Amino acid sequence: MSGLRFVNIGEVDLIELLTVDDTLKGLIRRGKLWLFNTLFGDQWWSDLFGVIQKADYSKSVTVSPHGIVQVVKEYMQRAIDASTAVGEELGSEGIMEMLSEGLSSALETNFNGSLQYILNVWKGSLPPDLSHAVSIGQRLDRVEHLYALSQLAPIGHAPQAILEALISGADVRLREKFSTVKEQHAELIRAKNALMTEHLTQMHNYIANLLNELVFNAVAVIDQIHGMINAIAQEHLARLNQLEDNLEANRARYEAGLIDDTKYEQRLTEIDIDIDSTMETWQNWMDRLNTLISNLANKIDAIKSSIVDTLKSAISDYESAINAVANMLKDAIATLDDDATLKDKALELYEDLKAYRKAGFKYE
Fold first, then answer.
1. Are residues 231 and 104 in the same domain?
2. Chain centroid to CA 178
3. How far is residue 305 CA from its own chain's centroid?
4. Per-residue pLDDT tens for 61-100?
5. Which of 110, 99, 117 is nearest to 62 (CA)?
6. Do 174 and 342 touch, CB atoms closer than 8 A?
7. Which end of the chain is least crowded, N or C, by CB within 10 Å?
8. Position 117 in a domain
9. What are phi and psi of 108, to 5 degrees?
């Protein structure tokens, strides 16, 4: 039809200019398609879908390798059949593209799935994603370098994105390694603080009670001593009052002439001796009581100091023992170099990955 020319104006084909040529071609193609449908009917089109349904199957997949070959051959045959009516381009596009685009989702879990299943056994090549880099990072302290590089190279991301995934995985690994010893250290410190607080509280209460008892007992003893002093003082005062009365009575007798000078002097001497004896006895009692009070005060002070020193020493020893264990854990944490080791390994993989990708591939 492209050779038909009805009107020429110079070098311009008027029919082509008015697109009449395409219209005539379309009408002829439509007539051929009508004839094709008349001859083969709707069943021919329906069989496009039945081809897959009737394909052979195997024990492992719903479409066997032989069935896949038959499906491909059948569709190629039908594409050629359709091309006789509507041309090669429309015939192949109408069937192959229709199947590729329109049935892609439906075929995903049967025909396409079977083909993928079969080829994956020998030629599986699904590229890894960033989760592989995260997984490598979580084992970065235990994975061999070249193995890790072989796993990272096929990941379709920029090296810096892979590095971030590595660091993310390594951070998880680092937290796992440190979490146990850090938690043990924290628990130990909490236990020490709780016990130290409890011991200090108990020591405070004990000393307070002890001092209260000692003070109250001392006050009671001192009150008793004061009572004894008062009793002794009253007794000796009464004795002195009695001696004073005797002195007044003897003077009255002397003035009345009932006793002579010798007798009077004798009685005065006796009264003087009694007064000195009473004063000496009083002083002896005071000395003994003052010594008792002093001994009591010294005893209290000595007991208090001994108890306080013993408790302080016990708490100091306990705290030193706990601190020794805590310091051991702290030193163990400080000497762990996993952080630097994981960082160095991640950077080494990063640099090698960049160099690896710069090398490229040769296809010839």
1. no
2. 9
3. 47
4. 677 888 888 888 888 888 888 787 777 777 666 666 666 6
5. 110
6. yes
7. C
8. yes
9. -60, -40
Cα 198 from Cα 191, distance rounded (Å): 10
CA distance 90 to 98: 11
- pLDDT tens-digit series, residues 17-69: 555 567 777 777 778 778 877 888 888 888 877 887 788 877 766 778 888 88
- Same-domain status, 43 and 174: no
Number of domains observed in the structure of the chain = 2
What is the C-alpha to C-alpha distance for residues 48 and 74, in angstroms, rounded to an integer? 9
Q: Which domain holds residue 297?
A: 166-354
**CA distance linking residue 84 with residue 27, whole number of Å:** 15
Residue (of 308, 283, 339) closest to 140 by Cα position: 339
**49 neighbors 78 (Cβ within 8 angstroms):** no
Helix residue spans in the chain (DSSP H):
14-17, 20-53, 65-86, 88-92, 104-107, 111-123, 130-138, 145-152, 159-255, 261-335, 338-359
3-class SS at 12?
Answer: strand
